[in-house]
Write a structure and sequence with these properties.
- It contains five helices and no strands.
- By secondary structure, the chain is mainly alpha-helical.
- It starts with a helix and ends with a helix.
Length: about 100
């Protein structure tokens, strides 16, 4: 019940960002921040799969808008989560 709003927000972000290219949002920077916050909240709630999906979405958005530091940060968080889940081969792919 606590994560229902987060799940709804993730679903809406995913629908909006599923299309290739730069999404039509008012502020890509605020969208990046919102997705980062969403992923972090999932992580704090001990929902690693949802956090992984959120960081993947964040990484995709950062790549679309050309935010190289944002992409690196999202990949870093993604890799740390994969290591915590003991998915070493997936973490290695993420690092490469």
């Amino acid at each position: 019940a606590l994560s229902k709003s987060l799940d709804e927000a993730f679903s809406l972000w995913k629908q909006l960002l599923d299309h290739p290219g730069i999404p039509s949002v008012r502020s890509p920077e605020q969208t990046v921040t919102s997705l980062h916050l969403l992923a972090t909240l999932y992580k704090l709630q001990a929902k690693p799969i949802q956090a992984l999906e959120s960081f993947l979405l964040l990484c995709s958005l950062c790549r679309s808008v050309g935010d190289i530091p944002g992409t690196a940060g999202a990949l870093s968080h993604l890799t740390r989560l994969l290591l915590q889940l003991e998915r070493l081969s997936h973490a290695q792919v993420s690092l490469e």
